[in-house]
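Rotation project, supervised by the postdoc (A.L.). Task for the rotation student: set up a whole-complex structure prediction and record inputs and outputs verbatim in this book. Inputs entered:
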Amino acid sequence: MEAQSTAINYLPIIFQILVALGFAVGTMAVTHMIGPKRKTSDKLTPFEAGIKVVGNARQPFSVKYFLVAILFVLFDVEVIFMYPWAVNFRELGSTGMIEMFIFMGTLLLGFFYIIKKKALDWD
Amino acid sequence: MNPGELICYILAGVVVISALVVVLTANLVRSVFLFFVTLFALAGLYVFSLADFVAVTQVIVYVGGVLVLMLFAFMLSNKELLNSLRQPAAAKLSMLTNIPAGIVAAGVFTVLAISTKGLQLAAPSGMSLFPAGMLNAGDNTIHLLGVRLMTNYLLPFELASVFLLMALIGAAHLARKGKEST
Amino acid sequence: MNALITISVLAVLVLYLGLYKANKALLPVTLLGLAVALFFTINHWNVFTGPTFNDMMSYDNFAVAFSGITITSTMLILLLSKGYFEKISDHVAEYYSIILFSLAGILVMVSYHNMTMLFIGIEIMSVSLYILAGIRKQDFASNEAALKYFLMGAFSTGFLLFGVALIYGAAHSFDLEAIKMHLETNLQTGQAISPLFYTGVVLMAVGMAFKVGAAPFHFWTPDVYEGSPSLITAFMSTVVKTAGFAAFLRLFATCFYPLHDFWMPVILVITIITLFAGNITALYQNNFKRMLAWSSISHAGYMLFAIVSLGSEASYGVFVYAIAYSAASIIAFAGLVLMQANTGSDSFDSFNGLGRKNPFLAFTLTVAMLSLAGIPLTAGFIGKFIMFSNALSSMHTWLVVLAVINAVISIFYYFRVIVAMYFKDAERAELEIPLNFKVVLAISVVATILIGIWPAFLPNVI
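Outputs recorded:
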């Protein structure tokens, strides 16, 4: 089973995920179990700085946040493209550098456009 | 069955079951959060297929980006809209309207099952799919990928930047609160 | 390659011109840039030596011919757009820029030599179109069109990508030539071709049929075409459709040719369904724009003939047909845009009495309708003739019989426009036709009639 020689490298990550999940779930479960429970109707209502709750908490977000999220995904993809280049940075040398700069330059043009267009201004 | 295989099968099981629940559950918010599980388990399967880079991409782009975008979409839409999107409890696989989609899905699945059955899958890791000399277990795939991306596949790589630029402009244009949409 | 770089740079340039409030310069700069790109493209004529850029692209005559048509059609459509986008929104530069990006994707689609290039070309083109379909943010129909197009398009891209992956699994290459070699050697030595390959071919056919709007994958077409702004619809139904067929033909005629016996029946069935679905539904439309949408589906059926019968004339046939169809459609959409701007309606009735008030516009529309219907002495006839004779030479006699029946059906709905223009009276004011419309109409009509009378005028590609 030679195939696992790489998969085995990820074993620590699996352990970490398990520990993280275990800790979160465990502490939540334990506090839930050992904490005292006294439920009254007052305690179960949402608390809003002492005043009565007005309206619905689920107000629609502004579309501006959505734009930020979309831009985040796009630059996320860009970063993914940089990863294989960065691994071989030395080997690819100046040619690789120029190639990457063209790639980055194209996206920077887009980023500059976004800023100039004030798409990220929140007023 | 050694521990590696066991983990692989567990991951595969998690993917299939969580994906089914994502599709079948009536509560959309729950589907989105379960989708996290599906995508993570899928990333694990990629690791077993010697595709480390794809696994990393999966986690960074899909889990870190696309799913966050989906959550934003939920926060953007108001509760009435979400309630109207909520499928009625009867919207199970047996619904009449789901039959055509079910037939197509079953058909595609059958064809795929038949066509992969003919392949010699000696090891569950899928090693024999690669002809000799193409990829070995110990290879640094990201290194090979990077070299290929910057030499043979340079043109698609640069065009990807054009594509991203275009998507950037389009997203900024459509998602912006312009004069015409206030 | 130069053309591709020119157009990509041009798109960014136009974007930045818009940013610095040089809105007057947008259209001239765009047209000039496209002319330069067209020049670079034509320069590649007959100098093909082999695939370039690590075998990613092959600028053969096929690529040059189709790049030429798409760039020219885009120029004509952009000429019509003077003052059009300004009415929709303030951000005019974005529209030009996204159309140019889409054209860059199209240039990749017509000259790819590698599956990755096909995929990225299609993606650049389609994602631009999703945005363009929805540029009327206030308009419900436009939003619906964008969303529908996006969902359907993303789904079909999934099919396409799945097909590419399966074919890679079987042939271990993305390169068209290598895949063909794999097929040929396997067929010669009697080795079984992996079942993955067959599945991949079918999935890719489904994906491409989605993109060109062939039945039974056409359901997005009418709504998207109707909801999008008319000039964007014109772009989609001419340039995009031409590019889709060029990509389709290149894939199946060069790469999957050895498996012709396997996929031909599939495409044959798609062709017949497309012809009947497009033509019969078009008969029942009362809206000119929707009729054009359905007629574009039926024309997709005629263009599929080339892929069914892959003779030596297949590329030439699609080439001529694409020119004829693009020219006629541009005229029709120009008429539609004028009509919408003046009367705000796009039903057949709004054309009543046009022949008396606007003889020139009525004449050009008549030529366009005749060409679309395939009446002799127009380019449409030559296109259909080449397609049919090609199909006859590959022994698809009954397919041609069905197609002729469809051509007869199509006459009914195309003639409704002509009848409305000349034989129905209505009180109407004369439409004012701007100069740029006159130029585009004249160019398109001359092209239609010239090819109709003297088809040898076009160089025989490939």
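Student's summary: The longest helix of chain A spans residues 89-116.
Supervisor addendum: Chain A has a mean pLDDT of 80.
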